[in-house]
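Listing S7. Sequence submitted for prediction.
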Amino acid sequence: MSEKTYNVLFLCTGNSARSIMAESILTRFGPGKFRAFSAGSHPKGHLHTETLALLKRLNYDTAGLRSKSWDEFAAPGAPEMDFVFTVCDNAADEVCPAWPGQPMTAHWGVPDPAVIEDEGAERGLKLADIYRMLDRRIGVFTSLRLEALDKLSLKKHLDDIGKTRD
């Protein structure tokens, strides 16, 4: 009996840092069980330089990563999502497209790496902390026994993950 592969979309406004991190983390955590995607409501068209450098230092495959619009995932022929998570406050407040299949949604907001004002080591520590928050939340998500939870229980777990005090 084959296990279901869940499609997960991480949304942010620019799709250059947080959602890219989340896509990378879930790709590493969930091969065979999860397929990770990311997109933005107003994609920047390029990746945040320091985020990309961090992912490379942590040995992530960054070759296929790109900043893209969430319209790609609402279009006919796009993969049907099982879960859609917003990882920034702006995207959480925007009106999202109607996702085919009515996926489960939750908000897992974390600070924006692009607006870190500190310099040097402090800047690097803040970026690493944002990564750690996403890594922890995605780790909790991937440990859930999704097939054993009813929709209401699953929704509560997803919302609770986003409220985790990091």
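Caption to Listing S7: primary sequence and predicted structure tokens for the chain studied. Residues 88 and 105 are 13 Å apart (CA to CA). The chain has a mean pLDDT of 88.
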